[in-house]
């Protein structure tokens, strides 16, 4: 509990004023859930968000570098332009998520649910990685994506 209070205080001091409300970030940290929230542009770098529920949330342009999102519920979330460098998304549910132009450099997607991962083009049933940077990312099957992996995991 003390960790959550300290983290909440630090977040209130350091978050820029974008399209989100700080109360939503506090809710996410305190309750581990903020489905359908608008957190676009938020800086959530390095946060421990294991198992959080962010289904259908607007996470466009959010900074989640080095964040721990293991087993996070991100089904239907929009992460367009999001920065997820070195993020841990192992076991996360990314079904129907939109990761268009997201930076997933060195991200871990091991055992993530990708709903069949539609790599090129949009679909209502698949995770969209169009234009996403997947350099050195660990794909859902544990393979390493090679440099030059843009929109698809080149093995």
From TrEMBL:
InterPro entries given in the database record: 5peptide_repeat, Pentapeptide-BTB/POZ_domain
Pfam families, A to Z: Pentapeptide
Gene3D superfamilies reported for this sequence: E3 ubiquitin-protein ligase SopA (2.160.20.80)
SUPFAM superfamilies the record matches: Pentapeptide repeat-like (SSF141571)
PANTHER family the UniProt entry points to: BTB_POZ DOMAIN-CONTAINING PROTEIN KCTD9
Protein name, per record: Low-complexity protein
């Amino acid at each position: 509990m003390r960790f959550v209070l300290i983290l909440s205080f630090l977040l209130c001091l350091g978050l820029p004023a974008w399209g989100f409300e700080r109360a939503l970030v506090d809710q996410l940290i305190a309750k581990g859930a903020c489905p359908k929230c608008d957190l676009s542009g938020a800086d959530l770098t390095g946060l421990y968000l294991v198992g959080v529920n962010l289904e259908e949330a607007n996470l466009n342009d959010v900074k989640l570098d080095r964040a721990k999102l293991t087993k996070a519920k991100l089904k239907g979330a929009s992460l367009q332009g999001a920065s997820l460098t070195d993020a841990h998304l192992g076991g996360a549910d990314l079904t129907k998520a939109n990761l268009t132009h997201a930076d997933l450099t060195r991200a871990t997607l091991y055992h993530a649910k990708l709903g069949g991962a539609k790599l090129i083009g949009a679909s209502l049933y698949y995770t969209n990685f169009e234009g996403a940077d997947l350099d050195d990312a660990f794909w859902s099957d544990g393979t390493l994506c090679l440099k030059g992996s843009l929109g698809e995991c080149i093995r």
